[in-house]
Design goal:
single chain, 187 residues, Immunoglobulin-like, 4-stranded mixed sheet, 2 helices, 13 strands, 33% strand, disordered N terminus
């Protein structure tokens, strides 16, 4: 089992030009803020802080290149806890079928990484499927912050669920995820 050194998942992602990216905070009791930095050290996006069970404002990535996303210093309990990763926008279009011009991704418009306590994953997967999400894959990690008293996790492991949806509207996806996230003790 791998250790998760930080709770932004995926830590490194590749998205097509024109992709709209939104972060959803299911980190119970913690504020988050995402800043993107491009190769010239310019900050083209700052989400501002957003609470748990809320989404960041979306950002549409039209320009190719690699963006570093990061956050530091928001959690006074864990002052050295730095979250980071990369978003790469390659100079290519998504693959299409040669016969009808449709995407090879079976009408999947959105991929959502979603962390859940491993001891609750079976019920949550069932609930997510009921809400119309597919579960493409899952990975189990040791909890990044450990199991601290009073955090209510009750599980030293977390599972990263890779969800899929045909919905391309971030608001619709967030509305459905909000039906699940209040039941999570922590992530």
């Amino acid at each position: 089992m791998r250790d998760a050194n930080q709770p932004f998942f995926p830590q490194n992602a590749v998205v097509n030009p024109g992709t709209v990216v939104t972060w959803f905070n299911v980190d119970v009791g913690h504020l988050h803020e995402i800043k993107l930095v491009d190769s010239s050290k310019h900050v083209p996006y700052d989400s501002g802080t957003f609470p748990n069970f809320a989404a960041s404002k979306p950002v549409k990535l039209n320009n190719t290149g690699t963006y570093i996303f990061s956050e530091a210093g928001l959690d006074k309990k864990y002052p050295n806890f730095v979250l980071n990763g990369t978003l790469t926008v390659p100079n290519q279009l998504p693959p299409v079928s040669s016969t009808n011009g449709t995407s090879l991704a079976n009408n999947i418009n959105t991929v959502i990484p979603f962390m859940v306590p491993t001891n609750q994953q079976e019920k949550l997967i069932s609930d997510l499927k009921t809400l119309g999400f597919g579960v493409d894959n899952l990975y189990t990690f040791k909890t990044p912050r450990g199991v601290a008293s009073g955090e209510g996790c009750g599980d030293k492991n977390q599972s990263l669920l890779i969800l899929t949806s045909s919905d391309s509207d971030p608001n619709g996806i967030i509305t459905r995820l909000k039906q699940i996230s209040p039941t999570l003790p922590c992530t």
